[in-house]
Design goal:
Radius of gyration: 19 Å
Strand content: 25-35%
Largest sheet: 9 strands, antiparallel
Oligomer: single chain
Shape: globular
Helix content: 25-40%
């Protein structure tokens, strides 16, 4: 399993390209779901004035399906994918951590199982933009942080209430309300907890495989 940083110059027109063109720094975007050509994400505007401007333009766009104000600086948006997210997911990649956008430039942090998947993603993205591969490393090689008590509580509540069932038995907005936290905070806690659990499981699996592969010495 690998993590790859992909730098992408978007050639297609996209409302996010227009919104973030004059931003002083790249705007973080955290993906919640990609399905049937649409993407739902948290747009972290960084300032209330920026969030207000982003919200007005997104709500005025006919193709944007949904805009919800999570708090002073964060927006939850559902819109048709401009192609990049779909290209990553249909080639078995998963977006992780915070990805960023500034005008035509996007930076994606992708989790994938095989190098062949990365090659397919790059080829797919290259059909409508310019791709540069940044860092590529094996997942879980660094020391992963332990789960906090709050992350453990939120994760346990999500599990108990059916958030991880398919179809989900509770929506993220309902779960956040039950926990008395914002939707953005909920997603941050879940994402960090999931990363810790996945890293621990993979490291344990590597250790077991390594021990199995080590031949016993003859006496």
């Amino acid at each position: 399993m690998f993590t790859a940083t992909i730098h992408f110059e978007q050639h297609r027109e996209c409302i996010l390209r227009r919104l973030t063109a004059d931003a002083e720094t790249p705007v973080p975007i955290e993906i919640e779901e990609v399905r049937d050509g649409s993407v739902t994400f948290v747009l972290r505007a960084g300032a209330e004035t920026d969030a207000n401007a982003f919200q007005r333009e997104l709500e005025a766009a006919d193709h944007v399906e949904h805009v919800d104000r999570l708090d002073e600086t964060n927006l939850l948006v559902t819109k048709p994918s401009c192609g990049a997210y779909s290209a990553i997911y249909r080639n078995h990649g998963t977006l992780r951590r915070s990805n960023t956008i500034k005008g035509t430039h996007r930076e994606y942090n992708v989790l994938l199982f095989r190098r062949e998947d990365l090659k397919a993603i790059i080829e797919d993205l290259s059909s409508f933009g310019t791709v540069t591969l940044g860092k590529l490393e094996e997942f879980g090689t660094g020391r992963e942080p332990s789960m906090t008590d709050r992350q453990r509580t939120v994760l346990a509540e999500a599990l108990d209430r059916g958030y991880y069932e398919w179809p989900r038995e509770i929506k993220s907005a309902e779960l956040a309300e039950a926990l008395d936290i914002s939707r953005a905070t909920l997603q941050e806690h879940l994402r960090k907890a999931e990363r810790t659990l996945l890293s621990t499981a993979l490291d344990r699996d590597r250790g077991v495989r390594g021990r199995r592969a080590t031949p016993k010495r003859r006496r």
